Structures are given as C-alpha cells and as structure tokens.
Amino acid sequence: MNEKLIVNGLSFKPFLRIDEIRKQVARVAEEIRRDYEGKNPIFLCVLNGAFIFAADLYRELGMNETQIHFVKYSSYEGVSSTGKVKQLIGLNVDIEGQDVVIIEDIVDTGLTAVKMIEDLKAKNPASIRFATLLLKEESSKTGYVPDYIAFSIPPYFVIGYGLDLDGKARNLPEIYINCDEE
Fold first, then answer.
1. Cβ atoms of residues 110 and 155 within 8 Å
2. Rounded distance, CA 160 to CA 141, Å?
3. What is the pLDDT of residues 121-165, one digit of tens each?
4. Region 18-155: CATH code
5. C-alpha 92: how far from its chain's center?
C-alpha cells in the first residue's frame, strides 16, 4: 500500500488494508449465507460506491440461484453529505414477496439507507436487510444500524475500494483516510 496520495489537492494515507477488507467481506458473506440458508434473496447494489464491495461479496456468497440488481441514490458532494437524498436510478425488478438484501458502501448519516428502505417497503418485499462495508455510527442522524457491517469507523472521509472523491480514486484496492482528519 502506498504511504500517501493526493486526490483533488487533499492528502490521504492508508486506513484499511486489502487483507483486512477480504477477511471482513468473507465474514459478512458467511452471516448472509447462514441467515438465508435455503432461500434466494435478491441483492441490490447501490451505485456507484458499492460496486466493488458488492462484486466481492456476491462472489464470496456462492449463492448461485440469487440475482443482483442495481439502484443509485446520492447524497454526497465533495467530502460531505448534503443531507438531501436523491434517487438517480430506480429498481427495475419486481420484489413483491421476495427477500431483499441491500449492499451499500457506507452508511454515514443514515438518511440514504432510511430512504431506500422506505422506497423498497412500498414494493411489498417479504423482508429487507442491509449490508454495508462501512458504518460511521457517530455521524448518524437517524440512529439506523445495518444488519451486516464489515467495519465500523470514526467519521473520517475515506476513499478507495469503490469510495470516491468527486468520482476519483474508486479504483484503489484499499481504503485511505483523509490525513487532515485524524
């Protein structure tokens, strides 16, 4: 892992290494497999940030009879949440009577998670559970806690492993923290 990198004029340093990430992805996959034994939930990946986590998690699950679909919500500009949640790409599959697992990159304020769940409940699924790579519990404005959490982290701004800064740095294989925040 590189020591420091600059993105949009901000300095970032290593925070979570790939071996730690892989270990937690495997743990979350095992929890989901156990909870859905004998079932075939529909997985919903929240674009754009969750695509790498979702791909790794979905492969690790080994649940060959399941489907994965994609939705897009947004509440971020730059390094902070705007507090306003916008649905940019909606669900294009019928989930009525189906078990649904949302896969998200980060739960920060909780506003996006709560909005997504509210939107999905209107479609009458059998159940909804939520998996996130990162939880910033200290930043919560809703008190929402996901069902599956790979890492709980302080309210730092992070990039890499799908997480971005204005669309940049998603390709980094590990997660970096803004140097000014620690």
1. no
2. 24
3. 999 999 999 999 999 999 999 999 999 999 999 999 999 999 999
4. 3.40.50.2020
5. 20
Contact 128, 117 (CB under 8 A): yes
CA distance 8 to 53: 24
Nearest-angstrom CA–CA distance, 83 and 85: 7
Residue 97 identity (one-letter amino acid)? G
Which regions of the chain are under pLDDT 70? 1-2, 74-89, 182
The answer to whether 108 is a known catalytic residue is: yes
Please state whether the peptide bond connecting residue 48 to the residue before it is cis, i.e. omega within 30 degrees of 0. yes
| The two three-digit tokens of residue 78, written as one number | 């730059």
Which one of 56, 99, 105, 108 is the catalytic residue? 108
Pairing state between β 175-178 and 158-159 = antiparallel
CA atoms of 16 and 31, how far apart (whole Å):
21
The token duo for 99 is 């078990």
